[in-house]
Design brief:
This protein is an alpha/beta fold and 284 residues long. 35% of the residues lie in helices and 22% in strands. A hairpin with a 2-residue loop joins strand 1 and strand 2. It binds adenosine-5'-triphosphate. The site of adenosine-5'-triphosphate has 13 residues, from strand 2 and helix 1.
């Protein structure tokens, strides 16, 4: 147990977290390639869970199966006890938001407008209200702007609200992606390599931001190659190698697992599908 006020992972909590996301036996095949092979994973309320693995291990494909971008060949994804339909907008409405490995912002829109786009799924006003622009439309619009500005303040971007997204430095574009994802008021946030391209200082700031998001009651599942980031943050970490989850546990369990060490050193995984190899540079 830590005695400082610094944020910490919550693995030392005594009560087990209530399940929020329950993934059961998800498999994703592309023709002859099994990118994700019978993977099960649970994310509990208030947890930060890591997903690591060498290049091509199937991490992003797994995220795409959770968020309805791909329809899994087999398996089920349930959120708060309800099986999710494989449609991205319904998954967002259910309470799951995500960021992408390759930043997907509207480059020629302002920072604020990008967050307002993310707010769209939470706005109840329909087409008629938008055309008529009655009082309820104006009220909803004002609320959305207020919430968007609050999220920009939370992510440290409030002063850049009127800047074009394309003019932000790279680290701030990643933050904006997170602000936009949070605009849908998710219960679970999926982050796909949130520190890619960041310098060490930005990476430490990203750690603080992830803890702060968790402290707002949002659970997190995060893909990362930066092991320090993962082990600083996560209550548990699952390791994917060639589509299979080979181990899941705390830092010690993962770091001491022979199969993980072997996978990161580039030796073939016994019994795994052919066609993908581990990349030694992922140990960075
Ligand atoms: N749409 C697709 N069609 C065919 N194959 C695909 C498709 N998407 C992913 N793959 C393949 O599935 C495997 C897993 O890829 P994926 O991008 O999920 O891995 P990853 O663990 O996220 O890798 P990285 O760390 O490099 O991002 C790879 O062999 C990839 O080429």
């Amino acid at each position: 147990m830590t005695t400082s006020n610094a944020p910490t992972a919550v693995s030392d909590r005594s009560a087990p977290a209530r399940p929020l996301l329950e993934v059961a036996g998800v498999t994703m095949r592309f023709g002859g390639l099994t990118a994700v092979n019978n993977v099960s994973l649970t994310v509990g309320e208030g947890e930060i869970i890591g997903l690591i693995g060498p290049n091509g291990a199937g991490k992003t494909t797994f995220f795409n199966c959770l968020t309805g971008l791909y329809v899994p060949t087999e398996g089920k994804v349930a959120y708060k006890g309800t099986v999710l339909p494989p449609k991205p907008h319904l998954v967002t409405q259910a309470g799951i938001a995500r960021t992408f490995q390759n930043i997907r912002l509207f480059a020629n829109m302002t920072v604020l407008e990008n967050v307002l786009v993310g707010r769209h799924s939470r706005t109840r006003e329909g087409l008629f209200a938008a055309i008529l622009r009655g009082p309820s439309y104006h009220r909803a619009e004002a609320e959305s702007r207020e919430r968007a500005m609050e999220l920009l303040a939370f992510t440290g971007l409030a002063e850049k609200a009127d800047h074009l997204a394309r003019n932000l430095p790279y680290g701030e574009q990643r933050k904006l992606e997170i602000a936009r994802a949070l605009a849908s008021d998710p219960g679970l946030l999926l982050l796909d390599e949130p520190t890619a391209g960041m310098n060490p200082q930005e990476t430490r700031a990203a750690e603080e931001l992830v803890f702060a998001i968790r402290d707002r009651g949002v659970s997190i599942l995060v893909i990362e190659h930066d092991m320090r980031f993962i082990f600083n943050l996560c209550d548990r970490t699952a390791v994917l190698v060639q589509g299979q989850k080979i181990v899941e546990g705390d830092r010690e369990t993962v770091q001491n697992d022979e199969r993980v060490i072997t996978a990161y050193l580039g030796a073939p995984l016994e019994g795994a599908a052919e066609g993908t190899t581990a990349a030694p540079e992922d140990t960075q």
